[in-house]
Amino acid sequence: MPRRSSGGRSAPRAAPRAAPRSPPPAPVSHAPPPAPASASSGGSMLGSLGATVAQGMAFGTGSAVAHRAVDAVMGPRTIQHEAVVSEAAAAAPAPASSSIGDACGIHSKAFQDCINSYGSDISKCQFYLDMLNECKRNSGVMGA
Question: Which of 62, 68, 108, 124 has its CA 20 to 30 A from that of 85?
Fold first, then answer.
């Protein structure tokens, strides 16, 4: 089908419609300004120290409660101490003071050390000899 011609004139067109206007964007709200920084010199030293101590006590208490709770669930903790004896210590001969006994061993060792140090002036060792004799009397170890 052929097109119809309107005699060289174009039909009047309707004026273009304006798009409906959307409301303008809302103004951007900014965050409130930051609070003024408190001057550290304004607080008392005792107050901050007290707060720190209180915080430490609270932390320690919470830790103790948590340990108790874990011990209740898992059972009490056990600690085993192991002594490792080196070969040199095991091969060393027993000291002479062991013949006197463990109770007076320290006094005997002190007396022997004094004798070794002041061999020429034995009067300086009288105190140690008196302590050793008193220990022997009190512990019942005689004739050693």
Answer: 108
Q: Which of 53, 114, 118, 117 is nearest to 130 (CA)?
A: 114
What's the total number of domains in the chain?
Answer: 1
58-70 residue pLDDT tens: 999 999 999 889 8
Q: Has residue 130 been placed in a domain?
A: yes
Q: Sign of the CA dihedral 70, 73, 74, 78? A: positive
Would 105 be classed as within a structural domain?
Answer: yes
The answer, yes or no, to whether residue 117 has pLDDT greater than 50, is yes
Extract the tokens encoding 42.
């304004």
- Asked if residue 123 is part of any domain, the answer here is yes
